[in-house]
Amino acid sequence: MRIRQLVVSAVAVVGLLAVSAGSASASTLASPLGAADPGFTRIGANYYLAATGSGETGTMPVFRRAAPTGGYTKIGNINAARAGYSKFWAPHLVQRGSYFFAFFSASHNGAAPCVYYASSRTIVGGYSGPRLLTCGGGGGREAIDATTYVTSENNTYLTWRSGVHRLGFPRGDYDIIARMLTFNGTTGTVGFTSGQAADNLLHRTSDYVYEAPSLVRHGGKVWLFVSRNRYDTNAYYTAVYSADTIHGTFTFRKNLMKTGQGYGYGPGGAEVETAADGSTWIAYHVWQNSKPTPSTPGKRILRTAKLDWVNGLPVVR
Q1: Half-sphere exposure of 9 (CA within 13 A, CB side)
Q2: CB 3.0 to 4.6 Å from 10: which of 74, 82, 148, 199, for a disulfide?
Q3: Residue 38's closest CA among 80, 8, 3?
Q4: Local structure of 17: helix, strand or coil
Q5: How many CA atoms within 13 Å lie on the side-chain side of 211?
Q6: Nearest to 2 by CA among 246, 183, 212
Q7: DSSP E strands, 66-121
Q8: C-alpha pair distances (Å), 60 with each of 9, 32, 119, 166, 243
Q9: What pLDDT, on the 0 to 100 scale, is given for residue 140?
Q10: What is the pLDDT of residues 257-301, one digit of tens each?
Q11: CA neighbours within 13 Å on the CB side: how many for 259?
């Protein structure tokens, strides 16, 4: 390993809802259902949000819309759950060949979460059971929040967070890791590419949480979006780093979204997607109402927004 420094509708689409007047963002909501950690993917002519579910939406719900923002409709669930597995969250969907691949975190028999995948010939329903890709390496380390990134050479990398809350949540040791994947779109299988080492994009010790990585290419650089601090309060936020390549040194560029800046309460779990015309868009979750403490009741919902670039830096519109 090379170490370097929308709310979505279940039945029908509802109208668009802009953030309150004077806010920094015109992100849109799609429904009142609870969901979080949106995996944001463009497949064919449609955009998909695969999410951590709730009692309202079930395990790993999937939502679809023909445009990146506005109202999404729930079309089903990634039914990869099997006996002995629990804590399914943060799914991300891609299509390769005749198969759809879902990457997600899960716990097996109560162990620390690992990254798994499942495949199906249809985007919802028909998925295999969880197939292990990687774990955190013992010592209570988690492997979570898997996403994919496609390079300019059309190579696909899996990106995920490995870490342990060694100093008590939300502080510990965290790594954002990327490693090339090889897909078999005929058999519905995927694995790490032989002979290709993993890259450690961010290595942090005795720090506040880093998680939910998302990579996008723009302006000759690779941009890394990560979530930080407590996911269960307003303190959650999104930060941005960049490097010249996925193998380069990632440098902090800005804090993209925080509570009180017009993006909602605890804006995080973000993923960025590129449209066919080259424009960039972001999906993320927020708390529906203010959640100042972990014990404050709350529900997470999804938003999507335009991601513009001003003076070379990303701005959520």
Answers
A1: 14
A2: 74
A3: 8
A4: coil
A5: 28
A6: 246
A7: 73-77, 85-96, 99-108, 114-120
A8: 14, 17, 14, 28, 32
A9: 94
A10: 999 999 999 999 999 999 999 999 999 999 999 999 999 999 999
A11: 18
**In a 10 Å sphere around its CB, with 0-12 CB exposed, 13-18 middle and 19+ buried, how is residue 172 labelled?**
buried
Which residue's entry shows tokens 């307003």?
Answer: 234
Amino acid at 53: G
Tell the residue number behind the tokens 């708390």, with chain if given.
287
Rounded Cα gap, residues 99 and 85, in angstroms: 23
- By the 10 Å C-beta count (0-12 exposed, 13-18 middle, 19+ buried), 154 is classed as exposed
User: How would DSSP label each residue in 232-285?
Assistant: TSTT-EEEEEEESSTTS--EEEEEEE-TTTTS-EEEEEEEEEE-TTS-EEEEEE
CA dist 145 and 114 (Å) reads: 9
- Alpha-carbon gap, residue 149 to 119, rounded angstroms: 18
Contact 100, 121 (CB under 8 A): yes
Contact (Cβ atoms closer than 8 angstroms) between residue 74 and residue 8: yes
The pLDDT confidence band at residue 15, using thresholds 50, 70 and 90, is: very low
| Pick from 204, 131, 200, 193: nearest CA to 167 | 204
Distance CA 237, CA 74 (A): 26
Q: Evaluate whether 309 touches 315 at the Cβ level (below 8 Å).
A: yes
Query: Is pLDDT above 70 for 12?
Result: no
Among 235, 250, 252, 176, smallest CA distance to 210 is for 176
Nearest CA to 225 among 201, 206, 245, 205?
201
Its pTM stands at 0.92
**116 phi and psi angles, rounded to 5 deg:** -125, 165
Asked if the bond preceding 297 is cis, omega within 30° of 0, the reply is: no
Both tokens of residue 30?
């799609």
